[in-house]
Predict the 3D structure of the following.
Amino acid sequence: MTPGPIVPEIDSLLHEPARLRILALLAMVERADFMYLLRTTGLSRGNLSVQLSKLEDAGIVNLDRQLVGTRPRTTYFLSEQGVGALIEYKRTILNLLDPIPV
Amino acid sequence: MGDTRTLTEHDLFNSYWDDGLLDLLCGLAVLVTGLGWESDFGALAILQAPLWTILWSPLRHRIVEPRAGFVRFSQSRQRRTTLGLLRTLALGAGALVLTFLLVFVVREGGEGAPIERLAPALPAVLVAIASGLACALTGARRFLGYSLVLVIGAAATVVLMRGPAPPLALGGLVATLSGAVLLARFLKASRQYQESC
C-alpha cells in the first residue's frame, strides 16, 4: 500500500469507448431499441451486441421486452445502478481532468 | 486526434423528424384543404385535415421505426412535445373556427368592407403560425420555410384579390414535396446502411 493520496481508480466497465458511447446515448433518452442504438452510436452489430451484454450482466443496463401489436420490441434503458455509476464516473473524470489547463 | 463533435439530447430530438413523414402528412392536409376549397366543398375542405395527422403514428411505426429504430425521449421532453402539439392543434382549430366566421362575415358584410380584402389571407397566415410552432417543437428549420411560403402566398392572394385556396394549396404542395423528398432520401439511406452492415 502506497503512503499518501493516490490517483482515483476509474471504473473500467464504463471507461471503454464503445460502452461509454452507449451509456452516453442512453443517458440522453428514456429508452431505445437495438436499431436506434446501432444507428446512433455507429458501432457494428456484433460489437454493440457484445457491449450491451456486458452492461446488462453488470446491471448497468436493463432490458424491457414488450409486444407492440403483433411485433416484439426490446428496449434498453439505464438501471438505477447504471445512473449512479455514470454519475460517479463523470465526477471521477472531471476531478482527474480539472487541473489540466485549457 | 479525438472526435470533437458534441451530441446533445436536443440534437437527437431534432434528428427524430428528419425522415420527412410529418412534413408529408401535414403538407397533404393543407394541400387537400386548398384544393378542396376551390371545389364544391369550400371551407368544409378543412375538415379532412386532422385525418392526415392521425396517420403519423401508425406510419412512423410501420415505415420509419424498422429502419431508424425506436426511441422514447425523457419525460420532460415528452411533456414539452405534448404541450407544443396541443398548441398547434389549438391553432388549427382556431383556423377552422375563424374560417367559418370569415365566410359568414364576408357573406354578410357590405361591399368594400375592409375585412373582405384581408379575410382570404387569414387561413394561410394561421397555418403559417402553426408551421412556425412546429419548427419550435421539432427544431426543424424547414418548417419556417413553409411558413414563409404561406405568408408570401397570403400576401399575394390579397394583392391579386384571389381567395384563401391558392396560398394553402401552394404551401401544402411545398411541404408535401419536401416531405416526399426527405422520406425518399431516408429510405434510400436506410437501404444503403442495411446493405453495408
Remarks:
- Chain B has a mean pLDDT of 86.
- Chain B touches chain A through 19 residues (CB under 8 Å).
- The first helix of chain B runs from residue 9 to 15.
